[in-house]
Write a structure and sequence with these properties.
five-stranded mixed β-sheet; 5 strands; alpha+beta; about 140 residues; about 30% strand
Length: about 140
């Protein structure tokens, strides 16, 4: 399996709703380093996993939805705890939609899987990984 990873970051604010989060229930900020890894069993006709420039641009565009915003204000996240794990899935979904929309080029149709990792710090991170289903 071949893979290619691109990296960017986002700075957000949020709070949590449950007592299990202790002091993090209060409004606080986070800066996430975001890695998106693309996987495919064979390289395309150009010997690429995916166009690195398009992948980087698309990730940057996806993250702009969240960067310098309070996630508590995002309608799609109402009633949810926007944990690192939850946000890894949110970024995954938006990147998958971008691939389906052709924003990573025709070669991206050969991708089989993707993994999004949000690094909360140098000692803690969370990921969401899944298949890219081209049948739907």
């Amino acid at each position: 399996m071949f893979s290619l990873t691109v990296r960017d970051h986002m700075m957000i604010a949020h709070s949590f709703h449950d007592d299990v989060f202790g002091p993090a229930r209060k409004l606080h900020g986070a800066t996430y380093v975001v890695d998106v890894s693309f996987f495919r069993p064979a390289l395309d006709e150009h010997d690429l996993v995916v166009d690195i420039g398009l992948a980087s641009e698309t990730l940057s565009t996806v993250l702009k939805e969240f960067t310098l915003s309070n996630l508590d204000d995002h309608e799609a996240f109402q009633g949810r705890n926007t944990t690192t794990e939850f946000m890894a899935q949110a970024v995954f979904q938006r990147m998958a939609w971008a691939i389906t929309d052709g924003r990573l080029g025709e070669g991206a149709k050969g991708l089989s899987d993707m993994k999004v990792t949000l690094h909360e710090s140098h000692i803690a991170w969370a990921s969401y990984e899944g298949s890219l289903d081209w049948e739907t």
